[in-house]
Amino acid sequence: MDMYQRMYQQKKQSFSIAAQLNFHTLPTDSDAFAEDYDYPVISLGLRYSINNVTMHRGPDFPLGQAKTVDYDSRLGNIVSLYAAFNRTFLRRHRWSADYTLAAGMSYAHKKYDPYNNVDNELIGSRFLIYFGAGIHAHYRLSGRWGLRAGIDYYHHSNGSLNRPNKGANIWGPTVGIEYFPTAEYGERFAKHASQKSFIPYWYAAVALGIGGKVLNEDWLKTQYGTPPDSADYRTGRFHFYKAYSVQVDIMRRYARRWASGMGIDLFYGSYAARVEALDKADGYRTKHSSWSVGIAAKHQVYYHNWSMAMALGWYLYRHMGQNAEIIEKPYYERIGIHYTIPALHGLTIGANVKAHLTKADFTEVVIVYPFRFE
């Protein structure tokens, strides 16, 4: 939650119920990836979040031309369908500990509405991107039952595909009951000899991306810079602008599960002319360009044909207007989930979110082709 949100958020309690179906890899599977990760658990889960979160901007809040309302806005409940990767890093008799990364899709019962939920700047879409992370301790009871407890974090947002998009961030303690189809445990994780060796190699990767965003500048104008008698006053309908990207990377696959390297990123935003028009109307003479260029450190984490792509970049060239100079950083992040199609010689498809200090800039679909150096 940012400082602005804290000024008018009132209640902030959240409770959730989740059910997961877990697949536990074992040494007997003869799976080299599973061995590298010390036999992880792959989960499919459904979570229902009951959110007692309310917001209300009073007369003392700086609203520009916007008017206060006489009701509280609500975050509403959210249901999420997700897949999770759970890696155990400690096993001691009946005890174990793991960390979890999860991704999926969510559906929000409530979203921003100019008529009855106008102060909800957290969620602007029914359908959302879900991300989760956590750390847990497990205790195996006698028989087929177990207990777990930990700390979890959940994030819901629309990746700037609509506005508003502050996103809902929820964290707190969790407890659960686990059921196992077999009573066996510790003996299943005795050390086995390595199944397959891995030969490191270099490769180049070229990625083409297409995606888009709704402008934060349009949101700010309709929320605070538009008179109440205008049809656009605090509207929930915005124009969607396309965004394009090209990535050229040199990577070293130094382990079966990891690759790292550097790359050049080229971005093209079809919205630059709109931003320039808004800035000129407000009296700003900031530089504007549809093109941006960055250099980035890249890292890829693999599990069979699935991978998580991560990047931390620094702009070499970027001029995206007055609002960007205020809220953006000179660096950017990128994270995505990719799938490699073996039959197409390593061609990879995926989805990325590009962000500035975790605040989404745009969401894109990418196609990646690797060129392996022999």
Describe, in plain words, how this protein is organized in 3D:
The chain has 374 residues and is mainly beta. Helix content is 9%, strand content 54%. It has helices at 3-6, 32-36, 216-224, 272-281, 322-327; strands at residues 9-24, 41-55, 73-74, 78-92, 95-108, 127-140, 145-157, 168-179, 201-213, 241-255, 258-269, 291-303, 306-317, 331-341, 347-356, 359-372. The strands form two sheets. Strands 1, 2, 3, 4, 5, 6, 7 and 8 form an eight-stranded antiparallel beta sheet that branches. It is flat. The chain starts with a helix and ends with a strand.
Q: What name does the CATH topology of the largest domain carry?
A: Porin
CATH level-two architecture of the largest domain: Beta Barrel
Share of helical residues: under 10%
Structural class: mainly beta
Number of helices: 5
Low-confidence stretches: none
Helix and strand pattern: HEHEEEEEEEEHEEHEEHEEE
Shape: flat
Largest sheet: 8 strands, antiparallel
Overall radius of gyration: 23 Å
Give the rounded overall mean pLDDT: 93
How many individual domains? 2
- How many angstroms separate the termini? 49 Å
Total number of β-strand segments? 16
Strand content: over 45%
Which CATH C-level class of the largest domain is it?
Answer: Mainly Beta
